[in-house]
Amino acid sequence: MFRQLTVIGLGKMGCSLALYYAKSGIKIVGLDVNQTTVDNLNNGVSHLTLPDSDKVLREVLDNKTFEATVDAEYAISTADAIIVIVPLVVDDKYNIDYSIIDSVAVNIGKYIKKGTLVAFETSLPTGTTRNRLKKIILDNSSLGKKDFFVGFSPERVSTNTVFRDLEIYPKIIGGVDSESNKKMEELYTQILPKSKIINLQNSDAAEFTKLMGMIYRDVNIALSNEFAKFAEKAGLDIDEIIQACNTNPFAHVLSPGIGAGGHCLPVYPHFFIKNSKDLGLDPRIAEEARKINNSMPKFSIKKLNSFEELKNKKVLILGLGYREDIKETFLSPTLDLIKELKQFDSTVYIDDYLFSSEEISKYGAVKYDIFSQDEDFDAVIISTYHSKYSNFDFTKLKTKIILDGRNKLDKKLIESSGIKYLGIGK
Questions:
Q1: pLDDT class for 159, splitting at 50, 70, 90?
Q2: Could you report the per-residue pLDDT of 356-379, keeping only the tens digit for each?
Q3: Does residue 189 sit in the same domain as residue 45?
Q4: Per-position DSSP letters for 4-61, written without gaps between them
Q5: Which domain holds residue 310?
Q6: How many domains, the chain?
Q7: 124 and 11, same structural domain?
């Protein structure tokens, strides 16, 4: 039985996991470098948009099963188990910067006590836990290699549904050796009592599981985007074709779209691509899928410009974040759309209820609110379909044309109001 678990990294995902784990009754110490985040959490103020997170935070604080700190020595030296979920940064060419997670491993090595389990949940290239991170811990510790345990368990949840996902999705785990496998199973059985635990008995296999899932989805979307381009040229509606196709139990075609963003889908395939090339393989499908999906914003603007000349025009984009109802712009397709529109000297407006005028202006755009403002636009682009848009009457927009990058609107309804409708593959 583990008495104290330290979670290192209190960002959106790490904090959500820490709060959920604290509900199991184990004492959670959350470690982060941001003093403001730590102070806010200890005072019951959450930075999460996750439903019920404020309520859960108050509960675990009242029950004294959660505290946050910036004191690495305290958080690590008192822990029976440690979960690490910090960013793995990549540059614009997708070269991996391990500096953050390496520094965490160094600190763990300095302060870890005998018998502690270290579980990494940050998505990693296959073999990183075994061949890199365990070695860093060992090199910075006075302990022997049999004195502590190391494993990997991929985070497989979505930002706004973490609590639900942890109970629905099986938890994949794997250790670097047989004793670590046992410890990993003990820990996750304790902190996830409602979840099925799948022990792959191998940290490399657990790492690859996460990458495989992301690459499968990326390739599926890329194939769907290719289908959409064909359907468009052939005068067909991609949505009704996908719906019909997926009645076959062996088909599971995802929806095409204007682009895929975030920390996962555009990034993790590059881990696999590098791993593959290091082994002398040629991962052509994964590479081509990334090229196709990365090209969709440019393809979409080119399509829009063929119907409505965009030079010096006024264009409204709906959604700045990379996904609906998420305040996060990392690799958001909207950023590429802005870049493409700026080449036409277009004036770009953005509607996104999660971002302030100042935040939007940093991207060279003007904040707009479709629910309270009523201006004319030469074109409107749906990049991210926030849930609140389902309550908006798009026929009321004062525009010549709508490019629906998520295929959410009714084409006949839009065009009955005199607005030209363009979709992806329709």
A1: confident
A2: 999 999 999 999 999 999 999 999
A3: yes
A4: EEEEE--SHHHHHHHHHHHTTT-EEEEE-S-HHHHHHHHTT-----STTHHHHHHHHH
A5: 296-423
A6: 3
A7: yes
